[in-house]
Amino acid sequence: MDIQTFAIGSRRVGPGEPCLVIGEVAQAHDGSLGMAHAFLDAIAAAGAEAVKFQTHIARAESSADEPFRVKFSQQDATRYDYWKRMEFSAEQWAGLADHAREKGLIFLSSPFSDEAVDLLTRLGMPAWKIPSGEVTNPLLFERIAASGAPVLLSSGMSSLAEIDRAVAWIRKHGLPLGVFQCTSQYPSPPEGIGLNLLDVYRSRYGVPVGLSDHSGTIYAGLAAATLGASMLEVHVTLSREMFGPDVPASITTGELRQLVDGVRFVEKALANPQDKDAVAGEMAAMRQTFGKALVAARDLAAGTRLQRADLSARKPASAGIPAEQLEAVLGKQLKRPIASGAFITRKDLA
Asked: What is the DSSP string of 19-40?
């Protein structure tokens, strides 16, 4: 199947392109603008190509009725209060976007309201990452359609039928599309990651696919790269001792460096398939060193007709008859006596 590739800014995404590694900050900044900027420096230094935040505007997306998924905060009486504390002003968001671009990072942020879409549109979003909880929200889709920018669709809370409807809507509006496998567990156990769904989405929709990983490890991302994921998004923390609900589902910036290096290693390996016979030919000299040749298993008299019990093998293969030619040697007669452990050569055989 031909996969429809697309560009996020100047970066093409899809088959034949390197996997786009996205460091997700989400709320790891805990409402601190300085911390948010520190994340940008650390994610860029780790080798990721993109950074993603979440743009929350409490009054536009939440209410006093929204419950905590997990009551993690001692300083926020309600979930609404928490979202309020996570807000940045339009000017602060612009500063973060400028900082990201200065660091060579693609700046992304998931919107959670119409107002967030408008704010991010003014910043020139090169793509829209739709969070799992917004896949069934047509109001948000209508807002982003006018931009014409690609849509990166997360699937964590949705059935296939719901994803189908979202994909159909996006295609109807002519927007480039990528679909992310995502499991909305924090952290996701290995049995909940759903790597098999990468191929399901790729074949079902004919688009580049990605993994939005919440395992808190580098393993799922490396597996996804091996399975041909075009995008990889991982939550990032500066330390496992940091505060916040996403820390257990995050990797450290040091681990992000390992992940990026590992993904590039996997890509290079996949891009260079091996011809086993050609490799064996290239290893001919090494085989002479590490292979074994036939030796006398005990003192053998001249005239001995060689039997299996008369023979053993030792390195290097270049010293005598290669051990792999054992069958051709059996039954041959010795011209001279051979001491135990001595190599047997063709000149020794009648």
From this structure: -EEEEEEETTTTT-HHHHHHHH
Q: At what angle do helices 160-172 and 138-145 cross, to 10 degrees?
A: 30
The residues, any chain, with a CB within 8 Å of residue 207's CB and separated by 6 or more, are: 3, 4, 177, 178, 179, 201
CA torsion 40→44→46→49, rounded to 10°? 120
Given the structure tokens 């005239």, which residue do they identify? 303
Strands of the chain (E only): list them: 6-8, 11-13, 20-26, 50-55, 106-111, 128-130, 151-154, 177-182, 209-213, 231-237, 251-252, 293-296, 311-314
Q: What are the pLDDT tens digits along the chain (350 aa)?
A: 789 899 999 999 999 999 999 999 999 999 999 999 999 999 999 999 999 999 999 899 887 766 666 666 667 668 888 889 889 999 999 999 999 999 999 999 999 999 999 999 999 999 999 988 889 888 899 999 989 999 999 988 889 999 999 999 999 999 999 999 998 888 999 999 999 999 999 999 999 999 999 999 999 999 999 999 999 999 999 999 887 888 999 999 999 999 999 999 999 999 999 998 898 888 888 888 999 999 999 999 999 999 999 999 999 999 999 999 999 999 999 999 999 999 999 999 99
pTM: 0.86
The number of CA neighbours under 13 Å toward the Cβ of 133 is 10
Q: Specify the length of the chain in residues.
A: 350
In angstroms, what CA-CA distances link 318 with 163, 181, 191, 313? 63, 54, 51, 12
Cα distance between residue 209 and residue 206, in whole Å: 9
Is residue 318 within 8 Å of 293, Cβ to Cβ? Answer: yes
- In the DSSP assignment, the letter for residue 10 is T
CA–CA–CA angle 29, 30, 32 (5° rounding): 70
